[in-house]
Amino acid sequence: MAATECRIKNELGSITVVEDVISTVAGYAAVECIGIVAMASKRATDGLVELLGRENLKRGVRVSLAEESAAINLYIIVEYGVSIAAVAKNVIESVKYRVETMVGIKVDKVNVTVEGIRVN
Fold it and tell me: pTM for this one?
């Protein structure tokens, strides 16, 4: 069973951060990147891709927590005409940096899945 929260211990005590917080931080970091039009969420029932703006960023993010680290999967829609490789690299670096500095946990990897391209 996967963990749904992460505990950070220091000399003053411990901090518990739930998975939703990590997902939201990662989602905000992703949509701030140039070339991202929206987050995408696949509905398991019918395989359709649902576009998500800023209102529910964590639905385009999947977090897998280990004891002291996380792996993050992002599902994005990119703007037509941009370099997908450059956008993905920027998203990976931004999400890793933001989660590690804001939340305080190590990010093992960030996987980006481009679900579509859209004219903005």
Answer: 0.83
Selection from 103, 114, 119 nearest residue 39 by Cα:
114
8 Å CB contact between 80 and 119: yes
Token pair of 108 as six digits: 């093992």
* 3-state per-residue secondary structure call for the chain: CCECEEEEEECCEEEEEEHHHHHHHHHHHHHCCCCEEEEEEECCCCCCEEEECHHHHHHHEEEEECCCEEEEEEEEEEECCCCHHHHHHHHHHHHHHHHHHHCCCEEEEEEEEEEEEECC
Q: Could you read off the pLDDT of 48-68 as tens digits, one per residue? A: 555 545 556 677 899 998 877
> How many whole angstroms separate alpha carbon 75 and alpha carbon 66?
21
